[in-house]
Each structure stands twice: as structure tokens, then as C-alpha cells.
Write the C-alpha cells for this entry.
Amino acid sequence: MNDMSKMPFHTQNPQFDTGPIAVEPYLSQDHFDAEISKIFKKDWLWVARDEELPNAGDYKVKRLGFAETSIIIMRGKDGVVRGFHNVCRHRGNKVVTETGEETFGSSRAAVVSCRFHGWVYGADGALVDVPEENKFPPCFDKADNGLVAVATEVWNGFIFINLDKNPAKNLVESLGSVHPHLDIFPFDTMVHTHTYRAEIKCNWKVGVDAFAEAYHVPTIHSGSFPGLTEYWMDDITFHGDHRSQGFYANGVNPDTPVGSAANEIFAGSIALKRTEPFVLPATINPGASDYFGFDQTIIFPNTMFHVGVGLWFTHQFWPVTQDTCLWEGKYFLKAPVTNSQIWAQRYAVVLQRNAWLEDTATMEDTQAALKSGAVEQMNLQDDEILIRHAFDVIKRRVETADSEAMT
Amino acid sequence: MANFEILTPYFDKWAQPTEYGRSDARRASTPDELRAFYDASVPHLPAILKKVDEYPVGQLPDDVKPLFYIALSIAEIAPNVEFYDNSPGVPFAFEESRLIGDHCAIAD
């Protein structure tokens, strides 16, 4: 029987239980429905980066399958980014035809027009042109029929939306102490993006949980990160419903002909040594440890930011059904300036892609095993305290009556 | 380009402009084929990278592009040879064919 002496994170955070957690929230349809209505339709969700919309008239359409909608994010001639449901006010067709989870476009006139009957909307959502407008009845007024707006705010280049018509908090208030934690990280200097996604047959929380601990690294990543035999977390911080931690490792991947050649040209892999001068926020690697890998900040409910020396990456798990989710992994580096840098970055991204394939491999097996009903509880160790925090936050949010939700 | 003639037998399969093309070539290989490509091409990698750096990004001449794609295929297969014992797939991994990459269909 262990005692608490080997559980420093729980000792420092006595608000958390140490007993097993219930499996039921990972399987139940009712629980899933409550998560959608009380969390995903209430909280700020990251949907785009500033750099994706550099010019007036640039737009991105992001599908939000859990809410059965998609959102047009568009930059106006005034430079402001605004969000709207992608639904025409005529007879409800999608205004922008989508080509996938994320659709990009640009309009020099800063308008979007519906392909069905040609209704035209400005970047402020206003309905500006209706073909054959004189055939609509006297009660029809263009001024009453702009695109339906969605709360949209930007923090540090991250564009968030909130499906609640009257969000309880603005974005920065909602981020709380995440704001000072990540505020000076130069996200906008590293925007060369590699995006991967897959529909995974698991509850969205199985995905978030799997990336929220380093306990799995020596086993799951013995293939792609053979040098990371000992991995640990520190700097555990709870930011309201959000949470963060630092990941540290005792080693890096071994020297290999191709891996080392790539790393010498551009150090873009978390599994290889990165030593260039780089200023991190004060709360990240506060002990200036040589073993620092990256900081992970989980923006509740579904967004995981990871920042390190000269790189950052994200994971998002979007609920689809109680046992299906959409995973999106994005890896960001400085724009390469030579062809050999393109090559070296591709090595780093391929290695990371493969590591993510190792991570996602467990998720469907986990869900299938939980669905068997053979076990009703899961056991967590000290290093899995962020999973505990997520479990507690979700339980509180789901059990809170709608009338009390405005905290 | 004469120095690179030894690599031309590998162009058909490995000089793939996209990440999907390169990962498909990898997964369609046997371990011996992966190893043979690695052993034949990696010694020329420094020379290829030097050659492609004679040109600005986005301005590689058509006759140099296959060499760049060979280098990118080396990056694609290097983990398999250096870490996965020449396994053409990523061991213990999510089904690779279900992974979508926004950049993977775009030619480098």
C-alpha cells in the first residue's frame, strides 16, 4: 500500500480526491448531451489564428459538428474579425460552400454570397444585396436579415468563438491566469503550420486525457522517442477551469544519420535538443531546467496548447457522439527560409506525426474497452492530476443547473 | 547532376512531391526495400541539401525537384529505418490511412 509521500501534486492540492474516477461520463448519452449544452455551447472555443486571415475579406469556415453548425470567421475592411453562423437568411442554405472541416476563402470586396440565390452579405454580417428584392413582401427588410452573429474575440492571435448569445464572461476574463502564463509567448513568429486530423472512435475526454499526462511516454513512444526514457511533469497550475504543466525529460533521441542532420539544420523536434536563445514566459520552465521539454496549457474544455523553445503545437478534441470525436493536431514552426530548412522541418513533423499516431492508437482501444462495461472506475496516479481536475470541473459544470451557470 | 545519377532508379517510386505520395510509397514497401532506399540515398543527402540550397524557396528548377523529393522521402522513412527496425508502417499506431493532413496533398 502506497502512502501519500509519493504524491506531491495531490499533497499540494488537497482539494482533489485520490480515489478512482467513474467511467460513466465517458459512455453516457445523457452526460454527453449535458456536456454539449452546458459546456461546449457556453464556453469560448478556439477556431482560428489571426494569420489565417491576413487581409480584409479573408474568411475561414469552421465546422462545429457537435452544435450542428459551422461558423464563418471573416476579417472586415476595418480589420476586425467577426463570426457568423454559415446560414443564409433566405431559406437557410449554407452561404459559403464548405470543402471540409476548415474551408478558407477570400473576397476582395469583403463579402460572401450564397450560391443558391445570390444573397450577398458584408464582412459585418449585413445583408447588402438581394436579387429581385422587389419581389419580396413589404414586411421584408434587409436590415433585419443579416447573418446571425456569433460572439467572437481574439487573444494573442487566437480567434475564439462562443455559441452562447450572451457569454457569461469575455474571453480574457474566461482565460483568467492563462493570460499572464502565455501572454508573451511569440506565437505569431511561428505560424508555419502542419495540420493533421482524424475521426477517432472515442469519447472526446479519452483523447484529452491521453495527452494530459507523460506517464505513457516511455511505453507508447518507445518507437518514435526512444531517447525519452524518463519523463516527468512539474509546474502544475490550475487556472480556474483551465490547467497547465511543464513536461521535462532526461534525454533526447539518440544521434542518427538523418535525425541529427535534420536537427543541425533546423531544431524543430521536441525529441531533439533545441538550444537556440529563446525567451519563454516567466512561469514556463521557471527553474530554467536543462531538461525542459514544453509547457502544456489546456484551455477548457477541448484545446491543448504546447509551447517550447522555437516551436508550439496544439491538440483539439471536438465531440461528435459520446463515443466519437474529431481530433485536430497542429504543429507550428518558424517559416523555413531555405530548401534544406523545409527538409529538416519535414523530418521533425514526420517524427511528431508518427508520435501522434502512437498516441491516437490507444484511444479507440480505450473507448472499446470502457464500452465493454467490464470496469466502472479508472485509477489515476499523482502525475495524472490534470485528468482529475478535468473530471472534477466537468462534473461540477454538468451538475450545475442552467439557472446557476452564470458564475 | 551527374553525381546523382546513382539515385535515378529510385525516382519513379520515391521522387514524390506530396507527403501523401511519400507515405504511400513507404507503406507499400517491404522492410528490405526501405532499407535499400535508405542505404543508397542517405550518403548523398548532404550533397542534395547543398544543391537545393543553391535556389531560393519555391524556385527549384524542374531537374532538381526530383532530388528534393528524394530528400523528403528520406525524411519520411528515416524514423522507420533508424527507430522502427525497418518496419514500413509506424508500429503500434493509429490506422495511417485514416489520418488526414491539410498539407499532405500539396506539392512541396
